[in-house]
């Protein structure tokens, strides 16, 4: 019995040390050297070096003077991230989308872009399409007493094209740029 048990226990201990200790330490070390900002959460700081959030996680901005992100099925909590898993035939999904469309609707601007009505797979997507950001310009310009052109220039300055996929706007970066504009009315 001991001839079978000893190698089995030794193999478990060895594999635990390799896969549970050595490998994570090596991967963490390589990440800290090669990609330190990303390895530490892609944190965004304000002018006072206070952490305002992460480039990778959406935050809920409410109020007329802010760009609104996509809805979140998990209330923007990283622990509860995930999709709502409501099917298109579910009345609860139709009700939520209808309510969100009524909240986001801007008169004389056509239908609300889908980015502002549908959740992402994780429920934490920090990006909007430039069209969804543009849709909010009139509301934000009116709420902050800013010219529309100033708000549109912020969108253009915060729009980037990833290696794969369409151009996107990071809502946190966009709202930080908006906050930095002088003479705002809140």
From TrEMBL:
GO CC field: plasma membrane
- InterPro entries, A to Z: KdpC
What are the transmembrane regions? none
Q: List the signal peptide residues.
A: none
What's this protein's family per the entry? Answer: Belongs to the KdpC family.
- HAMAP family per record: KdpC (MF_00276)
What does this protein do, in the record's words? Part of the high-affinity ATP-driven potassium transport (or Kdp) system, which catalyzes the hydrolysis of ATP coupled with the electrogenic transport of potassium into the cytoplasm. This subunit acts as a catalytic chaperone that increases the ATP-binding affinity of the ATP-hydrolyzing subunit KdpB by the formation of a transient KdpB/KdpC/ATP ternary complex.
Specify the protein name. Potassium-transporting ATPase KdpC subunit
Q: Which organism is it from?
A: Pseudomonas abietaniphila
Tell me the lineage of the source organism: Bacteria, Pseudomonadati, Pseudomonadota, Gammaproteobacteria, Pseudomonadales
Quote the gene name from the UniProt entry: kdpC
């Amino acid at each position: 019995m001991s001839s079978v048990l000893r190698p089995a226990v030794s193999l478990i201990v060895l594999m635990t040390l390799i896969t549970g200790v050595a490998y994570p330490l090596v991967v963490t070390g390589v990440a800290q050297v090669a990609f330190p900002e990303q390895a530490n959460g892609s944190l965004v700081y304000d002018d006072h070096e206070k952490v305002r959030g992460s480039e990778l996680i959406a935050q809920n901005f409410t109020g007329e003077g802010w760009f609104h992100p996509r809805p979140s099925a998990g209330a923007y909590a990283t622990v509860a991230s995930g999709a709502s898993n409501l099917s298109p035939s579910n009345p609860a999904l139709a009700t939520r989308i209808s309510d969100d469309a009524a909240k986001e609707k801007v008169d004389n601007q056509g239908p609300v872009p889908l980015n502002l009505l549908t959740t992402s797979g994780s429920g934490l997507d920090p990006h909007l399409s430039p069209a969804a950001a543009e849709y909010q310009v009139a509301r934000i310009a009116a709420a902050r007493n800013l010219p529309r052109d100033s708000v549109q220039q912020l969108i253009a300055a915060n729009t980037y094209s990833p290696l794969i996929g369409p151009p996107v706007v990071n809502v946190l970066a966009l709202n930080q740029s908006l906050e930095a504009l002088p003479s705002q009315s809140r």
